[in-house]
Write a structure and sequence with these properties.
137 residues, mainly beta, two-stranded antiparallel ribbon
């Protein structure tokens, strides 16, 4: 087999080596222990450091332009079970234990719709009440 | 339960409704039938349309700035098993049957390293020979 370079076996994690994009972000794929993808969110260096440090999913909200401690208001926190980095160090996969649901629409996963036969079809049931979780909107 | 708006049940898939970013792209999370995440790549409108049309994973390569028909040179194609869209229509999750490996480094998944105890640790074995797949580099 051709040897892996430059990463052979084990190396210290250096957050400076992550390939942050021009906005200082990388995408983080969040899935549960069974492999269901719950959401894709973005982390800056601070959010990844805080996620590792606290053991709870922490992101950078591009729309609100602020740190986003998932579940801080809704209680739908994400306890980190494991973290992986990709070959290019420009993406993270994180396994979590999701309290309630991950999606702001009330579903367990943001990916509650399948694409099939030219249609977008909801094939999940909401797991929490968004008004109760976030307040009347 | 609070009702879902504006997407109730089923609606036609309209690629114009996807939230393409300023470069015309969305991230696509690619996982196998068991839920293991193989890679995260980017699709433009043409790549998503071709993926749906052909049933094989097709992306837009940001580094090469061209359509990327995964496996075209290596043979490591991805047969689409299912496609899902997220709440914001700015991300895709795709389940595939992966021939060989997804990663250009020879691993089945691009996420062949875990982050643990401040280290990046390889915890997978290569599944194909990159020289044989891509030619000597």
């Amino acid at each position: 087999m051709t040897l892996m370079k430059p990463y052979e076996g084990e190396m210290p994690l250096n957050l400076d080596q992550m390939k942050w994009d021009s906005a200082g972000l990388i995408p983080a794929v969040v899935q549960d222990a069974k492999g269901e993808v719950l959401m894709v969110a973005y982390m800056n260096r601070e959010a990844l450091a805080e996620t590792i440090d606290t053991g709870f999913g922490t992101y950078y909200s591009r729309s609100r332009q602020t740190m986003w401690r998932k579940g801080e208001s809704s209680g739908n926190r994400q306890r980190v079970l494991g973290l992986r980095a990709d070959c290019d160090l420009d993406c993270i996969v994180m396994k979590v234990e999701q309290v309630g649901g991950a999606c702001h629409t009330g579903f367990y996963s943001c990916f509650y719709r399948k694409i099939e036969d030219g249609q977008l079809k909801i094939d999940a049931e909401p797991v929490f009440d968004v008004e109760a979780a976030y307040g009347k909107k």
